Amino acid sequence: MSGPHGISRRNVLIGGLGAAAAILAADLTSGPAGAAWAGPTIASDPAAFAAARERWLRFYLPAGLDLADPLVAAPAQQLVTTARTHLANIDRAEPRLGVFADSPFTSRSTYQDSQRVSYSTRRLREMAQVWAAGALEPDEADAMLTAIQEGLDYLTSDVWSTSGVRFGDWYDWDIAIPRSIHEAVLFVYDALTPGTTAAVVAASKHFTPTIPTSGTYAAAGNRVWFCDAFMGRGLLVDDEADVIAGRDGLVPVIAWANPDPRPPGLIDPSTENEAFFSHDGFYPDGSFVQHGQFPYIGLYGTSYLGSIPGITARTAGTEWEPATDILWEWVWSAYEPWLFRSRVPDTVRGRQIDRPLGSRETGTSFLNGLISLVASADETNRARLESLIKAELAYRGDPPTADMVLANAAVASRILADPDIVPRPPLTGTWVFGVMDRVLHRRADWIAVLAMHSWRMANAEKGLVENKRGWYQADASVLMYTPDIVQYDEGFWATIDSYRIPGVTTDTVARQLYPGGWANEYHNPSYWAGGVTAGQWGAAAIDLAGEPPSTMHGRFSRFFFEHGYVLLGAGITVDAGRTAETTVENRRVTTVSTGTLTVDGDPVDASGQIAGAHWAHLAGTGGYVMLAPHDLTVVKERRSGRLIDINTGLTKPEAFVVREHDYVTLVLPHGSASPSAGYAYAVLPGASAATTAAESTAPRYHVVARTPEAQAVRDEPSGRAGFVFFTPGSVSLVTTDTGAAVALEEGDDELTVHVSDPTQESSSIVIDLAAEVSGAIALDDGVELSVTDGRATLTVDVAGLTGSTKAARLAWNPPTLLDLVRAVERAARACAAPPDQEREAVQSVRHAQGGHRPAEALRALRRVLDAWAELRPSPEIEAAIDLASRLVARVE
After folding, report:
1. What are the tens digits of pLDDT across the range 32-52?
2. I need a labelling partner for 262 at 20 to 30 A (CA). Which of 45, 144, 352, 674 fits?
3. pTM for the complete prediction?
4. Active site residue 424
5. Where does this protein have coiled-coil stretches (predicted)?
């Protein structure tokens, strides 16, 4: 007995993995279809449908599939093992209660109940794929086919029938069940008894007669899945109307989003459903939104990669083929940045963070989708894509093809074996996704992800039954991903102290589990959330009011540089009787992050309070430098939890497993807080304890400003400084007429300025620069420069940019040490410093000019100036301190 496309099980016997594998005629590099399609077809020709079904099948089981290749054999064996488990679990009871014994359909009301139906069809699909691959001995194959046939018969006579009644989650009936059951039928198409396929499709038409055209059902990822299901069922029964409906249904979502001008936080989804969900989809800044108000490239975004390559493969060259060229823009702007060491950060995975397989599952979805695109890529995109794939496969363990679609495992094997394909170097840079209130900063060995919320994005999706403790996940949290790639997996969100998320300042009031409900999540009532990118570095900030019952309000900024990032907070307040705290780190102990903690040079083995801490180091993670000494709370604890505790809709056995993890938590207590409460610290990913201690003694990061109105940090050796202005104001050499984010880089003969409007409410921003600018080298569109008496004014058109950045490169004459001497003299006069102190300060400048360690001389000068400022603060002293900081880059 053979599978429907002629692969003999006797020739392709995966069971022992030692038998010879059949090598079919077509070259794998010709793509999932196995052979090029000859050209447009007559849609009414039955041969066109048969050819499309063949290409669809080849998408999963391509001709030429070499199961002797270990990288293909590994996922094949996974699939065989899974299918055998399913076969052993078939419900044999009389009367039958379900397809599988552990998923009975006795209860028919809840989300869990409809999930049991969709899980059952997914299992049948896996069994059918194994059968189609010819992967079993004859007797086992016959038993597998019989079980599939009987399972389909049972479903089409009961829950999945033309008289079937919905229960539980609409998603199961409209998307999950049809997509998996259609593909189960595809794999055993020619071996099914007459009428089975028609019965499956008739039930599909019964439950979903049309593709929705409004609301969340018709938006972005959901609509792609609907269209996939329609095209699939149409091909199974030669129904051109369904195929065309699927093709045409894609048109609104294979395009840039066209949102209502109001942010979702100001739209009532119960009365303006269409306007609310119009925000779903892709944006030119790389953002992807689903459910109106959540960053979701890590779940619903995968629907595009999971469906469109298969859709185009089965319709290639026909009049049914949709136009999908825009997908390549999304690959590079929306997908690639978020794939780090074969994982996708939780902050863009919505409520999926409480799923059993964690970020690896999403990373596998990304890679499966990207690999599926290789065959249809043009030469330029294919070269870039293969380079990316080869780089990411290196982080997937052994074998790197585990959990992959068999066809993709074969392509991955070819890519890995091809010496002409060079792995893409680690992606570095700073991305500001203004539409979805996210900032991503990438270096070669680590990334940092800032999650915020505003009127545009809600704080955290909970749905009806999920993410029950997502209270603070987007409250300016900064999650650091390192070579410790399992850090956020294995039940992290079920076991972590959910009040203490890294980077987050909380009112420590007790919270209740989220009760559930759709589209009623909390929005921070501010437009100020966003940032500015200067390519390889950047800055971001948020004006944040906590979700009630929290009463915390504060303004928080983050500055991302080459060697680390800096977090500032100012104006932190809470109501009387409350206290506030900021979590610096909350790290799960793993084989990489060992939990060994050192604070100010001393090992810390237990929980406790440390007064006036300067630095901390966590082995296997990195260093933490207090840019102003701060009391530190250390918590070392073992925590336990189950995924069912935070997602009460889960039904899989792993959701009920009690997981235990050790955590090391570093917290800055603020007490009852006040307008002056705040913090300033730097995170140095991967740094050693010695490096952290040295950085504490002579920090490279200088806090230029930290007030509720403006915050700024300079990375002194690089000459780079980030500024965030919550209100109009002046800091250092930058003055702005409105709220803005500015990134400034001082070079030898160039001054580069990057500007954005994080509020997305301004039409223009005017930036005055106290600098000797002589003219423009390059100006982005919408940027104008005027120079008067050596002062430069930039007028930046930011209307409609959704927080994106504009830049200007200016020719200038940078300040010198002579300018600093004059500034010090003015500062000395302003505070009436004794002559000997003035001489000492000026002498420090001289040392910087010709000494052995000029940067140290400037830092020594700053210590003198800081002492003056404490005794008698003045603008002149602040200007001298700032200029000394700016000149470090010019003397090192």
Report:
1. 333 333 333 445 689 999 999
2. 352
3. 0.93
4. no
5. none
